[in-house]
Design goal:
Number of strands of chain A: 0
Strand content of chain B: under 5%
Order of helices and strands of chain A: HHHHHHHHH
Oligomer: heterodimer
Helix content of chain B: over 70%
Number of domains of chain A: 1
Largest sheet of chain B: none
Shape of chain B: rod-shaped
Distance between the termini of chain A: 30 Å
Radius of gyration of chain B: 18 Å
Largest sheet of chain A: none
Order of helices and strands of chain B: H
Strand content of chain A: under 5%
Structural class of chain A: mainly alpha
């Protein structure tokens, strides 16, 4: 039953993402402002991949902090497994957001990486959670869950600053080339909003399924380890 | 439509990476199920 629900979730997410892709490819027009600024209006469609990945990863880092709090309060390993799984999958999403961002940077600004404030803050988020994964692997088993929970809570605070505070400081916005301003002031066609919503939903559902699977695996592996002792 | 190629590639890379990760998890899960099931 549980497995069937998981397969259903994967199928729905897959369909949503394929529909979003088809709409983006065949229906959404190239963005006029991107055409004027970068010479190719179609590169604006990268937002359908890049933005959902970034949004889902940020929300997930905050949710993982919630799992951390739940673990510290109850000491139930289920919360620890969920927290670790959430961060692992969110880390993958953040890596993909960085890669697609670098691809946009190459097409729009001529360089894969130019230390734009957005790229730099995303890089710092990645470093923060790469360290989480390394610390979790290195800490002994008795303290692993507690250390991970505390790290997840502190990491969420850092993510909040790096995703939503630093990039929006006036001094940073002046020097940033990131096109979020164009999107924020409605510089994209209405069709962009609906496809972005669809794509974010698909990415979100797929995320939930990946976390379910990863957390179940984590718990099962732990049970096997305990049983084999 | 060569102008749309960058978007197509961004989508393809993301799709392949996510599906590869899903496949890896499923494979590990199936291997664990086999390990846990009683030998026939």
């Amino acid at each position: 039953m549980r497995r069937q629900r998981g397969q259903m979730l994967t199928a729905v997410a897959g369909i949503l993402l394929l529909v979003a892709f088809a709409l983006a490819f065949f229906w959404v027009p190239p963005a006029a402002e991107f055409q004027r600024l970068y010479g190719n209006g179609h590169i604006a469609k990268i937002v359908f991949v890049h933005v959902p990945l970034a949004i889902v990863s940020f929300v997930a880092f905050v949710v993982a902090a919630g799992f951390g709090v739940a673990y510290l309060r109850t000491r139930r390993l289920r919360w620890d497994a969920l927290g670790a799984a959430t961060i692992e999958v969110a880390w993958l999403y953040a890596v993909l957001a960085t890669v697609t961002g670098a691809w946009f940077s190459r097409l729009a600004w001529g360089a894969w990486w130019n230390w734009d404030p957005r790229q730099t803050t995303m890089f710092m988020v990645l470093l923060t959670y790469t360290a989480y994964l390394l610390v979790r692997g290195a800490v002994d088993e008795e303290r692993r869950a507690s250390v991970s929970a505390v790290y997840a809570i502190l990491g969420a605070g850092a993510s909040l600053m790096l995703y939503w505070v630093v990039p929006y400081l006036p001094a940073i916005q002046q020097i940033s080339l990131h096109p979020s301003g164009i999107i924020a002031r409605g510089g994209l066609d209405v069709s962009y909003r609906s496809v972005l919503l669809l794509s974010t939903l698909g990415m979100g559902l797929l995320f939930v399924q990946l976390v379910r699977l990863r957390a179940t695996l984590e718990l099962a592996e732990r049970q096997l380890m305990v049983a084999s002792r | 439509m060569p102008e749309a190629l960058p978007f197509f590639l961004a989508w393809l890379i993301t799709w392949l990476a996510l599906m590869a990760y899903l496949w890896r998890l499923e494979t590990r899960w199936r291997a664990m199920e086999r390990e846990q099931s009683p030998e026939e």
